[in-house]
Design goal:
By secondary structure, the chain is an all-alpha fold. It folds into 3 domains: about 60 residues; about 40 residues, no CATH class; about 160 residues, Serine Threonine Protein Phosphatase 5, Tetratricopeptide repeat (Alpha Horseshoe), CATH 1.25.40. The chain is about 70% helix and about 0% strand. The radius of gyration is 24 Å and the shape is elongated.
């Protein structure tokens, strides 16, 4: 009952009542949750000195979870639900050591690093996800894509991209990863060819179109790239993808004579979506 009341007060954002509710008494085996709710209520109250007191309470909650995987994962889920990325990250890193909960932990860490655009840790987590679930081509493709874009062990990324493509040759993420891989090996026309085999509606998805635009520009086909740059502008792309296209456009612009028509640029991204 104590936990249910605390959850209800949290949903109501009644921080003063939640502070009072979580301040006294002993919640038995759920003492760590009492500390967590008290910490969260303190933080949300925005009172002077609340952050330091909240951090101390949260630290106590974490210590009460040590060596208890069930408590750690429950507290990690709360931290994610409450949008406390720093606290959630540390807990999920601990939870990831447990093989039974590793997949959930790595998925949660991916969301944290994606939200903060922490690309090195995102790539590392993608690698660990691939190691955990080696038979899932979409996970493999994401690891390969990041490895190649960030130039982190590109040869491994190329190998994984081919495996993902061989497993799922019609899935846009797998096609994109293999096209990137071929481009990185100097086989840009081959990369363009496999992208162009996708159905038109998939090819004009912003995140797929962007890669076709990049490869066409790398292959000296700027005019053909315009259509796909427009498609990339029309939807969501990740920051590292936007940067890749901008750098490719700048490289193409500096290597060709100036003309009255300016080179196309990529516009800010609207709401999130992912290629399917």
């Amino acid at each position: 009952p104590a936990i249910e009341v605390a959850a209800a007060l949290t949903a109501q954002k009644n921080w003063s009542r939640l502070r009072r509710w979580a301040k006294g008494g002993n919640w038995g085996d759920s003492e760590y949750l009492r500390l967590a709710y008290q910490a969260y209520a303190k933080q949300q109250s925005r009172q002077e000195g609340a952050d330091a007191e909240s951090a101390s309470l949260w630290h106590d909650a974490e210590r009460a979870c040590e060596e208890n995987p069930e408590r750690e994962i429950r507290l990690a889920r709360l931290a994610s639900k409450w949008k406390l990325p720093n606290q959630a990250e540390q807990l999920w890193l601990r939870v990831a050591h447990n093989p039974l909960s590793r997949r959930e932990a790595l998925d949660a860490l991916s969301e944290i690093y994606r939200a903060s655009n922490d690309l090195p840790n995102l790539c590392l987590t993608a690698m660990r996800l691939h190691e955990t679930s080696p038979e899932e081509p979409l996970i493999a493709a994401e690891y390969a894509r990041l490895s190649i874009i960030l130039d982190r062990n590109s040869s491994e990324g190329q190998r994984v991209a081919k495996e993902a493509f061989d497993q799922a040759p019609t899935e846009p993420p797998c096609v994109v990863a293999q096209a990137l891989s071929l481009n990185s090996q100097g086989r840009t026309p081959d990369g363009i060819a496999i992208l162009q085999k996708l159905a038109p509606e998939k090819l004009h998805d912003a995140r797929v179109a962007l890669y076709l635009a990049v490869l066409l520009l790398d292959d000296g086909k700027a005019d053909a790239a315009h259509e796909f740059i427009d498609a990339a502008n029309s939807g969501f792309v990740f920051p590292e993808e936007k940067k890749l296209l901008q750098e490719t456009l700048q490289k193409q612009s500096s290597s060709t004579p100036a003309t009255p028509t300016p080179s196309p640029t990529i516009s800010p991204s609207p709401a999130n979506s992912s290629p399917r």
